[in-house]
Every structure is written in C-alpha cells, then in structure tokens.
Design brief:
The chain is mainly α and about 100 residues long. The protein has one domain. The protein has a three-stranded parallel β-sheet. Helix 1 runs parallel beside helix 4. One of its GO terms (molecular function) is hydrolase activity. Keywords: Hydrolase. It holds the Pfam family CN_hydrolase. This is Carbon nitrogen hydrolase family protein.
Length: about 100
C-alpha cells in the first residue's frame, strides 16, 4: 500500500479547496491519501459564526446528502479515482 500526505494552502473557499484536492489526487498514485486538518476551510476565522458557516453536520445520512458539500465531494472524488481519503473538516454539532 502506498500512502501520500498532501499539504496545500487551504483557503476559506470550499469549492476552491475541493478543486485543488481533486487536482492533487488525480495525479497521485497512492491508494491512501491524507489531507490537511480542516482541509475544507482552513483555520483562520474572525468569530464563531464564521466557523459555523463553513462547518458541516454528519449526524445523520439525510443531512450529509443534502448539506455537506465538502463531505459529498470527497466521497465522489474517492470513488472516481478509487482512493481512500482522510480529510479534516469543521463538524457542526448540537450541544
């Protein structure tokens, strides 16, 4: 098994990050790809509300199917290129 760790400058723009992730995975011959922590959105947020705006819920399958742009994209990329992907994202949860 070949494992690859990918580092890149993560932006606050999920769609841009997803595009960049797919570009890296497309040319990578590893079977397991490890992405950075918070690879969906990066770390720098002005406040809690900004962080919540980019976080995604994984509490149930319905929420993942409807709202989780990053998670769904990673699943699609994984299937498309037949790779296992480990990706960090901000998880939204209720207290």
């Amino acid at each position: 098994m070949k494992v690859s760790f990918i580092q890149f400058n993560v932006k606050k723009d999920k769609k841009e990050n997803i595009k960049k992730i797919e570009e890296y995975i497309k040319i990578n011959d590893a079977s397991l790809i490890v992405l950075p922590e918070l690879s969906s959105s990066g770390y720098l947020f002005e406040n809690r509300e900004e962080l919540l705006s980019v976080s995604e819920s994984i509490n149930n399958e319905d929420e993942i199917n409807k709202k989780s742009i990053f998670i769904n994209s990673i699943i699609e990329i994984s299937k498309k290129y037949n790779k296992a992907i480990i990706a960090g994202f901000a998880e939204k949860f209720k207290r």
